[in-house]
Specification:
This protein has about 290 residues and is an alpha+beta fold. The protein has two domains: about 1-50 and about 160-290, no CATH class; about 55-150, 2-Layer Sandwich (Alpha-Beta Plaits). Helices cover about 75% and strands about 5% of the residues. The protein is built from ten helices and four strands, in the order H-H-E-H-E-H-H-E-H-E-H-H-H-H. It has helices at about 1-15, 20-55, 70-80, 90-105, 105-110, 130-145, 155-195, 200-205, 210-250, 250-290, and strands at about 55-60, 85-90, 120-125, 150. It has a four-stranded antiparallel sheet with strand order 2-3-1-4. Helix 2 crosses helix 10 (about 250-290) and helix 7 packs across helix 9 (about 210-250). The longest helix is centred in the middle third of the chain and has 43 residues, at about 155-195. The radius of gyration is 31 Å and the shape is elongated. The two termini are about 25 Å apart. The mean pLDDT is about 80.
Amino acid sequence: MNLFFVIKEGFSGIWRAKLPTAVTVVVGFFALVLLGLFATVSLSFFDIIDEVRGRVELEVFFPDTATDEELGIFKSGIASLNGVKKVTYVSKDSAAVIFNQEFGRDIVEILGINPLPRSAKVLVHPRYAGPDSLQGIVASINAFDPALDVRYNKVFLQKLEENARLFTVLTAATGILIAIATVVLVGYTIRLAIYSRQQKIKTMRLVGAANWFISAPYIIEGGIQGLMAGGFAALAIYLLSDQLLQRYEPGIYEVLHPSTFLVYPVLVGLGFFLGIFGSTLSVRKYLRKA
């Protein structure tokens, strides 16, 4: 019977304070929509970064004096290094073909000889594509033979990592600010509801009601408000993504779409959690003062 009363009070409290509830749900809705859009863009950005990292290659140029046996040792040694995903050998003839494809000229016809060195393209695992990890792989390759010439776009990768770190900080800071704003708004609404029912709370205390029994309806009320805000926010993200973007900006939709599947349940769960958290803080603060 007590449980039924607590749940009933939690739902009825929303109908008794319709305007504050509506304000909280609407403001929480906009906050969570903003957070959802930001999270979708952020996740897509990180997916793009991981895709770029997955294409990072080192080019290892072998000395002309290296024998075929030495080349085999170099290739097997490089392939066994931690972080190396694949090693593709490029012969002098293959290098000439690549040169012809990229520049539209036959280097043998131009120079009369093929001066291009033998090399290997080393594909790196995405988690080893950072500047520090690559430096370790380069050092390990040079340990086989100092004459090996290892090259990669170091400046580009450093800029990529710097931008990724900056974007991570901005994403975390924005998410925390929005979460705090939602908690404050839900807590403020619950506090208004508590003050409007002060006499009822005093009466419940006089008859010996425990603090959890008094606070539970307000916590349920906050959870419902957060759940409603999160549900409406997830619906708004769906309409923006799967309806507007897919119809008018299919290119952007293809980039953002994979991330939205994760955002939908997160928004609903986050709205519920923030509602519970904000109402719990408000109720505890009031009961300590009362």
